[in-house]
Amino acid sequence: MRFHLKVWRQEGPEAPGRFFDYDVDDIIPEMSLLEMLDKLNEELIKKGTPPITFESDCREGICGTCGMVVNGSAHGPQPKTTTCEIRMRHFQDGEAITIEPFRAAVFPVQKDLIVERAGLDKVIQAGGYTSAYTGTHADANAILVPKDDQEYAMDAAACIGCGACVAACPNSSAMLFVAAKIAHLGTLPQGKPEEASRALSMTEAMQEEGFGACSNHFECQAVCPKGIRVETIARLNRAFLKASLKRLA
Amino acid sequence: MTLDGKVPSGPIETRWARHRDHLRLISPANKRRYTVIVVGTGLGGGSASATLAQLGYNVLAFCYQDSARRAHSIAAQGGINAAKNYGGDGDSVYRLFYETVKGGDFRSRESNVYRLAELSGNIIDQCVAQGVPFQREYSGELSTRSFGGALVSRTLFCRGQTGQQLLLGCYQAMMRQVSEGSLKVFPKKEMLDLVVVDGEAKGILVRDLTTGEYEAYAADAVVIATGGYASVFNLSTNAVGSNVGAIMRCYKKGALMANPCYTQIHPTCIPFAGWFQSKLILMSESLRNDGRVWVPKKKGDKRPPHEIPESDRDYYLERKYPSYGNLAPRDISSRAAKEACDDGRGVGPSGYAVYLDFRDAIQRHGRKVIEERYGNLFELYEHIMGEDPYAQPMKIYPASHYAMGGLWVDYNLMSNIPGLFVIGEANFSDHGANRLGASALMQGLADGYFVLPYTIGDYLATTQPGKVKPDNQEFKKVKEDDEARVNRLLSIKGSRTVLDFRIELGRLLWENVGMARSEETLTKALEEIPRIREAFWSDLKLTGSEKDLNQQLERAWRLSEALDFAEILTLDARERRESCGAHFRVEHQTPDGEALRNDAEYSYVAAWEYKGEGEKPAMHKEPLTFEVVQPTVRSYK
Question: Whole-angstrom Cα distance, residue B513 to residue B511?
Fold first, then answer.
């Protein structure tokens, strides 16, 4: 297979960026999109041209490192798929493919396709945990957890922290990211005691870090590679409202 | 050099408790005066950083990823073992201990393994308290499943994302300590070197991967938690960034490398399709609970799987190992797959794959149950292969996966360099010559949550806090050395890329130091490795500069260390003239092709000491003694 690529290149955070055109040939349908970029990079290096800088690590859709906009959509057009999981057989031979970094003011471009996402860690630091210290705890079976609750918590806990939801949101909101953590921990008896303070502190941290508010576009859900649902945002809103009222009282 | 493992004596059931009771303590008020560096933020490093910071130490955690939530522990799928007897099938601490020692083919320290089994239950309680959403039954109680090498059901799991959920537990505990000020995380900083002052580990030199600047960090102790070395095979199940750099730099500063030849080849991975691949993706071993492994009986049978009748199928694991069947340990299952393929009965385009078939399980339990158990794994498979595993069997083949060997540590997890601690996959301590499934997560968390936080205090109590500062001469010297090495890489200006060399090394190791090794192949590899290294240092082509985000340079640095590591791995494999666990020497096998151990001559840990560039390393032996479990021929028949 062969493809025509338009790839965003930018030397550094302050440098202006622009699209560069590349033609790639001899692509096998089993190859992943990133393996295609690896191949292109090998050719660039051999020519003495700096290769395209992009991040990835596990290459199996779980570490959340990779993340770029492929043909206009965060992580590419396939639903519930990370960038590293995209296989070339999903494209038409000869197709033009546009690859650019996540676009959000809170995610400044560092180089080519790499963005800085430290804001997401700061949001977790504000309360995305239970305060159980390392030590002796009750037996894991001492508190029963209804299976449905556990499954719901697991659906939300599947978030890989890639930031696609932020990149896809017209407001660069991290609501889905925050809501997933609130839903994960708040559904379980172990996380319930801190749910109110968690909803307040994480939402405030999100705003402080410059992420926008949610205005119900639901683009986040459409691009989430792990299928996190916007219903979790409704849950976050309820928890936030309840906690705010409690604070007023 | 005599290696003292500092293993306590007395009844094995109480060794750890008695040892822990006599470790020196530091008062809560004084802990904040001590700084501890932790390199790596996977399950070992993450749990250690969070716990040390909770205890009050001043902790600095480093990782090459852009966040502490991304280390490769995250990709562990299947589960974590715990001797909870939740399955009600007669499990106990002793049984987990016994199966782990046996699974490791009697090449691990009994005391360490017993401690690991003993702590396995605490880990689960800890993780549940953190909000890890382990799979539950309708009763609300925890579910378990079986893994290879075990006759009981003791593996807890979060769908096929257990590593992710456990790691997020560590990460979230870390983030809380960050907000409390006792922990600082330094992402995108790669450890280039260990700094040893007056014989003790007192800091590290890192390279900031964004700016290319060198930075020195001093501490009272250094903890290495940078994972294993499976990536030297190029194609492995490891992350593309996983590397041996940190453990090799410690080795070159005098830390001993133990049992590097013990490398686990995981039996159930997506088959090799071509050298363009950046990695091989693992399909969880838990699939072997319900999937049946088979190949056609006839050589070269190219019929599609559903056209091959039962009478023409060879369920070779069930045939050869009737009592464990498809749940035979990893090393045995991997070798059996290789044998079937070498015999011309492999499937798929390359002939190097076997079937993992769910047809019978789907008929027995219904599609819904199978979907619930393995849904995301089936999805992953379909993503990659473009085939529906509900309709036709998966094709799988073994791939390099895990390192049982690593830096040598004593019972306190301290290396032979005082102040240098090594935890998780980076050390050699608990799995012997083969690791059982779902035990890596257990070891990483046992080390980080429940062992190191106690034992490190015993060392720190003997030291004066803050004794060494980053302006110490030794930091300057290390920086000059490493800067020179980086510049040397950039100045070669040859014609071949890093990946080119990585593939060459990986292919050499896979073919000669892989699942079956012989004196001949190992000698060949030992001749070839220096040749590849020489070519690397004279013909490498890099672009870009030192003081920049330069991924080629990062990879070149890592590969330069892998080239040196490959040689110790191969040397260790040649010197161990027996077969044990994952280390299979074709000269040493029973008439029916099983590994033939030689306890009389090889019941020891081989710990290698660096003797300088181009010099042959020296081997030191730590004898292994078995007081509780008598080494027997490991049979899974």
Answer: 6
